[in-house]
Specification:
By secondary structure, the protein is of the alpha+beta class. Helix content is about 55%, strand content about 15%.
Length: about 475
């Protein structure tokens, strides 16, 4: 069943249920009026007759005013008629005859019997023998002698009252059913509307759409509580799914990192194998020549070459071990506040001997007051690697420009050197381990194995900074940035 049909079904069922209840109540009322009202009214009339008789007996007086004060309320409210006569049948009080007007008991039906312990009987009225009445005939003893009391009320009045009541009840029932059905339907619509809204929100939640919320103020009680629960469930599911998506993204990134690490590991092994292949071949070749004692062989030259290649291998292995130590040690780096302006100035001063040795002109532009947070040891290594890279690639009698500045709370350190520009397609590759650009750029190849820039990137990335390179003015500028720190 579709959602709209479900809501319609709930509304119709609720309206039908309320209508059945109304009809049931009205039917019970009609049944009561038809079968219980008449005996009930008769019983009430009898109680009124006995009550009046007891009151007359206890407070009797031939004074008509006193009698009227006792009887008048019963006559008006209960519809009772009373006649009181003495033992000579003289009329003392009557509800419908004139005083002094007697009546002959002998002319009354023989079934009439006055008694000192009277009971109510059903019989024809004295005034109109065609009218059936409830009648009581009693004798009371008073200070004035015996007094004959007759109290009666027409049964027809009771029947008419019941009939009128039944008619009114039927009309009221019809009106109540019509109004009740309309009110029940309106109430059913108002009752089902919040449920319809909650159902719509629940369907959106099932479709993982958490943008809509149920109106918690639309209804009170259980429906309002249900709306609140739906909203809480929606918020928790949204939070849970967001967290799950975030964790999946992290898992994906971790997986990507693992794949990248595996690729780097394979590349590292291949590069190490490649780098070690040439010196090992030279070592093996010259060692075999010395062992074979080839005639005319310059043994000192062979030994010098073996020593030189062994030294290169030693430096390369130390560089690789250093790289591993850096990658591991950065996880435990010590973050201190560093005056980077003074820090750079000191490092350049320490390196000045290399500039002089290689006949390189150095220009410094160091802005004062540049403060960063970082590990002194590793940042010094990153700066020195940039400087060493610049020295290695600067042309003879070339220039190196060192600059430090604060740009928008980013501390930017750059090193420019004269020399051959880097090809654009190689710009991103130079940061990889063991990658070397065209060897023609390297004036003193020495022990260059392509780990210097990789170490810089590793250190700066661990400090949440950025590295970069660009070709400018027939040279190359390497730079990195760190966040400015203001204590």
């Amino acid at each position: 069943m579709k959602w709209g049909e479900r809501m319609k079904s709930i509304r119709n069922k609720l309206a039908l249920f309320v209508t059945i209840i109304i009809c049931f109540i009205v039917t019970i009322q009609v049944i009561i009026n038809l079968f219980i009202a008449s005996p009930y009214f008769v019983s009430e009339k009898k109680k009124a007759i006995y009550s009046l008789y007891d009151k007359i007996e206890k407070n009797y007086s031939d004074d008509s005013e006193k009698l009227n004060s006792i009887i008048s309320s019963f006559e008006e409210m209960k519809g009772l008629q009373v006649e009181i006569t003495d033992e000579n049948h003289n009329l003392i009080y009557t509800s419908g005859r004139k005083l002094g007007e007697g009546f002959d008991l002998g002319k009354q039906p023989e079934s009439v019997t006055y008694s000192k312990n009277p009971s109510i009987i059903s019989r024809k009225s004295f005034r109109n023998l065609n009218i059936e009445t409830l009648s009581l005939y009693g004798i009371i003893d008073s200070d004035y002698g015996e007094r004959y009391i007759m109290i009666e009320t027409p049964i027809l009045a009771i029947v008419d009252s019941v009939r009128v009541l039944n008619h009114i009840t039927i009309y009221v029932a019809i009106f109540a059913i019509i109004i009740g059905i309309g009110a029940a339907y309106i109430y059913a619509i108002r009752f089902s509307t919040p449920i319809k809204e909650i159902d719509k929100v629940a369907q959106n939640v099932a479709a993982l759409d958490f943008s809509q919320k149920a109106n918690e103020n639309a209804s009170h009680g259980e429906i309002g509580s249900l709306a609140h629960s739906i909203n809480v469930m929606s918020d928790k599911l949204s939070s849970f799914i967001d967290e799950l998506v975030e964790k999946n993204e992290l898992l994906y990134q971790d997986n990507e990192s693992l794949m990248k690490s595996e690729e780097m590991r394979k590349e590292f092994i291949a590069n190490v194998s490649h780098e070690l292949k040439s010196p090992l071949a030279l070592l093996t070749g010259y060692a075999e020549m010395l062992k074979s004692d080839v005639s005319g062989l310059d043994k000192n030259m062979c030994l010098d070459i073996i020593i030189e290649e062994a030294g290169k291998m030693n430096e390369m292995i130390k560089s690789m071990l250093n790289t591993s130590n850096i990658e591991y040690g950065l996880n435990k780096k010590r973050m201190d506040e560093i005056d980077f302006s003074k820090f750079i100035d000191d490092i350049v001063q320490k390196t000045s001997v290399l500039f002089t040795k290689n006949k390189i002109t150095v220009e410094k532009d160091i802005e004062k007051g540049c403060i960063v947070r970082g590990d002194v040891f590793y940042l010094e290594q990153a700066v020195k690697n940039y400087l060493q890279n610049a020295i290695s690639h600067t042309t003879k009698d070339g220039n190196i420009k060192i600059k430090l500045s604060n740009i928008d709370n980013k501390i930017r350190f750059s090193v420019y050197n004269d020399g051959k520009e880097i090809e654009e397609q190689k710009m991103n590759k130079i940061w990889d381990s063991f990658y070397k650009t065209d060897e023609a750029r390297t004036r003193n190849e020495g022990n260059n194995i392509g780990l210097g820039l990789y170490i810089v990137k590793t250190i700066i990335s661990a400090h949440k900074g950025e590295v970069g390179v660009r070709n400018i003015d027939k040279g190359v500028e390497f730079w990195f940035t760190l966040d400015s720190y203001n204590s």
